[in-house]
Amino acid sequence: MNFTPTELGASIIFAIAILHTFCTSYFESIAKNSPRHAGLWHLLGEIEIVFGFWAALLVSFISFYDDLQTAKDFLNQRNFTEPLFVFAIMIVTGTKPILYVSTQILHALANILQSLLRIRSAPVLYFLTLEITPLLGSLITEPAAMTLAAFLLRDLIDRHKCSRALLFGTLGVLFVNISIGGTLTNFAAPPVLMVASTWGWSSVFMFANFGIESAIAIFINALVITLLFHRQLIEPSTEKKEVKIPYAVILMHLIFLFGVVVFAHDPVIFMWILLFFIGYTTAYPKHQSPLILKEALLVGVFLGGLVVLGALQGWWLQPILEMLSPTAVFYGSLVLTAFTDNAALTYLGSLVTGTSPTFKLALVGGAVAGGGLTVIANAPNPAGIAILRSHFPENTVSTLYLLIAAIPPTIVAILAYRLC
């Protein structure tokens, strides 16, 4: 493998950043025992800050090893469209009108199932959120689906009454289902988007090769976890009546959401739409909820840091992919996805010339199947953690527990892709 000292340094920093993600709970415990510097330890304990922090150190390393201009050129050559899009879509999707209409749709479906099966509403809503919303990600994009699902699940999970197993089990299934749920089209899942144009994959092609398999895996994962934990799910409160939101307000929010999704690859346009959206919510605050600016910004920093750190990992990733058979590529990309963003992985795979159609399908299949194993495996994952984290013990999501919880639904996805 040929590499430069800068690439080697970047890989060392990247490895330390991954190790840091497993130690965030440790920094939180230090913050409790060291009140004098608690703010600093809390910062290092924020999982969304990890890659932004180490990316800053990488840029500093390049500045000192080479020069400041080299570091600036390196940053200017990076594409930050994905972090900006996730930032924008989280803000637009996580609003009261969007959540209201989504909840109403799920409640309508839940009522139909309840009348047929005669079961409680909470398990039905839980199942539908983990089943329908990931599939919806193929239309509104995976980050939007993740934001919606996380907010809907937040209202079904009570941190004082549910177990750690339910919390991490839900997160594991959510991450895996979202990762594979965006594969029914060629534009919604980041790892698919990175190769669709290069390889000429249309939405029809994606549905034919991944659609049925993904839908089966999502259904099984959602059903199994619902059956396992249905007794812990609390019925929605009937005491508090929700104020109806005018249809005109809902329509405007849907238009803004549609605009951001349509121009997902044009940051100048969707950020312009976002600014107008913020202005609209400020002008008509009565039917609005506080915008999740902090959470979205943290996720944007996380993904931006991942873009910076991941840019210099090709020297060891690409040779590994080149030497693997299609079957080995599937499992190899699945494992590697746990250590790097699956979109970066498929992009590097698209640079390998002379690959067979089986190789390409295996690469993408493994990348999306492993998209729930870690926080960094799939771009929308940090959005889910940012929204649900407050429901976890000590407001911290253990990377190790997430990995353990994501393995069973990942195995289901593997079996669906390899056997169906």
Write structural notes for this entry.
By secondary structure, the protein is mainly alpha-helical. The chain has 2 domains: 5-76, no CATH class; 81-419, no CATH class. It contains 21 helices and no strands. The chain has helices at residues 5-21, 24-33, 38-45, 50-65, 68-76, 81-93, 96-117, 121-140, 142-154, 164-181, 190-199, 203-229, 247-262, 267-283, 293-310, 314-322, 326-337, 342-350, 357-369, 381-388, 399-419. α9 (142-154) packs antiparallel against α10, α9 (142-154) packs parallel to α20 and α11 (190-199) packs parallel to α18. The two termini are 37 Å apart.
Brief summary:
The chain has 21 helices and no strands. With 420 residues, it is mainly α.
Helix-strand blueprint:
Layout: H1 5-21, H2 24-33, H3 38-45, H4 50-65, H5 68-76, H6 81-93, H7 96-117, H8 121-140, H9 142-154, H10 164-181, H11 190-199, H12 203-229, H13 247-262, H14 267-283, H15 293-310, H16 314-322, H17 326-337, H18 342-350, H19 357-369, H20 381-388, H21 399-419
Helix pairs in contact: 1-4, 2-3, 4-5, 4-15, 6-9, 6-13, 6-14, 6-15, 7-8, 8-9, 8-10, 8-12, 9-10, 9-20, 10-12, 10-21, 11-18, 12-21, 13-14, 15-20, 17-19, 18-19
Keywords:
420 residues
